[in-house]
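Fold it.
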Amino acid sequence: MIRILACGKVKENWMREGIQEYMKRLKPYEKMEIVEAADEKTPDDNSEAENRRIINKEGERLLKLIRDDEYVILLDLKGKELSSEKLAAKIQDIYSYTGSRIAFVIGGSLGVSDDLIRRADFRWKLSDCTFPHQLCRVIVLEQIYRSFRILRNEPYHK
């Protein structure tokens, strides 16, 4: 089973439609679940201390959602970049060696807490580009779908 644990709700219809499309495509491959943790209001004029408080609060909420037996892949700008093929191999390795539960964790708009970083089994950097954290759900789902296609040697556009 793969779960995506994410901070905040997806507000844009086109993003929700993309998420639904990839959840549908993934049904033949794996049981999937998306769990949302509430995000904090973040005014533009926050102090660094207030930003840290928000990051920590959102981190606490996400940590409560993580199961003890889950392998945690945390999306992190300071994580390791993986090609689609390497992500597929990572998923296969996790299933082979550590069990059948994976949680992809997507923090809030300000980043992820130190406690979440410590809990992570692997820190994954999607790109050098910055993406809205809500859009990351669509990207992660697409990469998971692509991974299963790669692992089964099924065609998928490149």
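The beta strands are 2-7, 32-37, 71-80, 102-106, 122-124.
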